[in-house]
């Protein structure tokens, strides 16, 4: 089955989404991440969406849900690298990713997670 | 020839009517599965790039297409998308029509309200798509189906 790889670095989980996700793939990622947070005892999740040229309401909801699930499992989520055109479209669509922490790039996202955790 | 399948021509909105004279090329794609939505997004992006829509406008159009295609599958039970390149004088645009044979939308005003959903989603598909495009029209018939058409013009 098609899957998006999740990398572990210390107590962080790293995901880089590099394919145009169909809805089932997005749901699989949400489930996989939630399971890995528990099995790996992860404290932080960094999702890099710099390669995504579209975030629609389904993907947006997946990101919000993942962040919410991570939160109740004692992990922080940071979404990094959103393209400007995606940000403009997302807000006009009506999605604000409420409750999701964001950073401009991976480096800043790591710093944000580091500050929160250590 | 089966008459069971709706075509875009069976539905009438002013926008569809205007489309008819402005089309310069059409691609029709089936909408049945998740993979069909991904393929549609790719084809819409190609159309948008071909008439040199700005990156922001490309993204808006492709996002609207993704929302409407999902609606066609989820609420309409599947259907078809028609992609048109439109030319009106020197102005160019991309027109998209989503047609299904579903139950129709009983209350369009309600369905266009932000946050209203019957499917457990966020309720942003229709209302959000309308905001993301320059023109938007719905023709829906109870028990027959729905056609949603949108246009994004090159600025």
Can you describe what's shown?
The complex is a heterodimer of chains A (118) and B (155). By secondary structure, chain A is an alpha/beta fold. Chain A has four helices and five strands, in the order ββαβαβαβα. In chain A, strands 1-2-3-4-5 form a five-stranded mixed beta sheet, sandwiched between helices. In chain A, α1 (23-40) packs parallel to α2. Chain B has a single domain (10-153), classed as Histidine kinase-like ATPase, C-terminal domain (Heat Shock Protein 90), CATH 3.30.565. Chain B is globular. With 155 residues, chain B is of the alpha+beta class. Helices cover 37% and strands 29% of the residues of chain B. The longest helix of chain B is centred in the middle third of the chain and has 20 residues, at 55-74. The mean pLDDT of chain B is 90. Chain B has five helices and five strands, in the order αβααββααββ. The interface between A and B is medium-sized, with 24 and 27 residues.
Give me some keywords for this one.
heterodimer; A: 118 residues; alpha/beta; Transcription Regulator spoIIAA; 5-stranded mixed β-sheet; globular; B: 155 residues; alpha+beta; Heat Shock Protein 90; 5-stranded antiparallel β-sheet
At a glance:
Chain A is of the alpha/beta class. Chain A has 4 helices and 5 strands, in the order ββαβαβαβα. In chain A, helix 1 runs parallel beside helix 2 (57-72).
CATH topology of chain A: Transcription Regulator spoIIAA
Shape descriptor of chain A reads globular
How do the strands of the widest beta sheet of chain B line up side by side? 1-2-3-5-4
At the fourth level of CATH, the homologous superfamily of chain A is STAS domain
List unreliable stretches of 5+ residues of chain A: none
SS summary, helix count of chain B: 5
**What can be said about the biggest beta sheet of chain A?**
5 strands, mixed
Task: Please trace the helix and strand order of chain A, writing H or E for each element.
Answer: EEHEHEHEH
Largest interface: A-B, 24 and 27 residues
Taking all Cα atoms into account, the compactness measure Rg of chain A is: 13 Å
Strand element count of chain B: 5
What's the architecture of chain B, going by CATH?
2-Layer Sandwich
CATH topology assignment of chain B: Heat Shock Protein 90
Number of strands of chain A: 5
SSE class of chain B: alpha+beta
Question: What can be said about the biggest beta sheet of chain B?
Answer: 5 strands, antiparallel
Average pLDDT confidence of chain B is 90
Helices of chain A, by number, come to: 4
CATH class wording of chain A: Alpha Beta
């Amino acid at each position: 089955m098609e899957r998006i790889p999740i990398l572990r670095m210390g107590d962080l989980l790293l995901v880089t989404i590099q394919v145009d996700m169909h809805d089932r793939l997005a749901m699989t990622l949400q489930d996989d991440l939630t399971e890995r947070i528990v099995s790996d005892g992860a404290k932080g999740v960094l999702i890099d969406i710099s390669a995504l040229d579209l975030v629609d309401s389904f993907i947006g909801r997946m990101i919000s849900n993942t962040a919410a699930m991570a939160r109740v499992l004692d992990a922080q989520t940071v979404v990094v690298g959103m393209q400007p055109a995606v940000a403009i479209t997302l807000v006009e669509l009506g999605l604000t990713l409420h409750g999701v922490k964001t950073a401009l790039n991976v480096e800043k996202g790591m710093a944000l997670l580091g500050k929160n955790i250590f | 020839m089966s008459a069971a399948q709706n075509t875009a021509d069976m539905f009438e909105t002013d926008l569809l009517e205007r489309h008819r004279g402005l089309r310069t090329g059409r691609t029709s794609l089936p909408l049945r599965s998740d993979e069909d939505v991904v393929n549609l997004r790719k084809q819409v992006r190609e159309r948008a790039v071909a008439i040199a829509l700005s990156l922001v406008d490309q993204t808006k159009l492709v996002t609207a297409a993704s929302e409407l295609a999902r609606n066609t599958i989820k609420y309409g039970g599947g259907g078809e998308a028609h992609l048109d390149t439109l030319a009106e004088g020197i102005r160019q645009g991309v027109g998209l029509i989503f047609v299904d044979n579903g139950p129709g939308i009983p209350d369009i005003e309600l369905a266009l309200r932000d946050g209203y959903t019957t499917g457990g989603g966020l309720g942003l598909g229709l209302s959000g798509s309308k905001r993301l495009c320059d023109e938007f029209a719905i023709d829906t018939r109870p028990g027959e189906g729905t056609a949603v058409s949108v246009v994004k013009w090159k600025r």
